[in-house]
Amino acid sequence: MTERVGTTPTDGGGRVRASRVVYHWEGPPRVELVLDDVERGGRRWAQHRLVLADGRPGAVAVVVRDDQVLLVRQWRPAVGRVLWELPRGLADAGDADGAATAAREVHEETGLPTASARVLGTVWPDSGLLAGTVAVVEVHLAPTGPDASPSADGEVDARHWVPVAQLDELVREGTLTDGLSLAALAVWRASR
Asked: How many folded domains does the chain comprise?
């Protein structure tokens, strides 16, 4: 296990006094579970954080077409369920920015080519555990038919275009429950 000792100042007057990696897996993606010795306001405690892909950011894509948003269905072993969510993933070393990551993920997961991608903002998907940020990206498709075949990466079971007006209903009825997708839709709606 790797130990990092020092005083790392943080916003808000706290500091990380020391850190050590308690679990490491080469991946993909590379995963580290880090245990920090934290101090703030005269109080000390131990705090775990998860670092994915060496801290590279992720991206979540709000794919828009004709006042509809694209959802993909994926099995998520961590929760033991199949979920409807927005396309997303971690940055690859060759991705220039969050927009490039989102465009690549949309193509990999759905087979649909993108025409444009614009970063709308950034979210912390779980600020109590995850060390990385995720760019929220609005994506528009290239002018090809909407029936492009899904890619061969096998991550996505299905895709579905949902009218923007029905998104709230999907949330209320419990069909759309993925926290990252919900946060991304909130950022997207605030930017409209």
From this structure: 2
Amino acid at 176: L
Do 38 and 85 lie in one domain? The reply is no
**Strand 58-65 and strand 134-141: pairing?**
parallel
Radius of gyration of the chain (CA): 19
pLDDT of residue 8: 53
Burial 38-56 (b: 16+ CB within 10 A, else e): bbeeeeeeeeebebbbeeb
Mark whether 43 and 60 lie in a shared domain: no
Its domain, for residue 147, covers 56-191
pTM as predicted: 0.86
By C-alpha distance, which of 63, 73, 164, 67 is closest to 107?
63
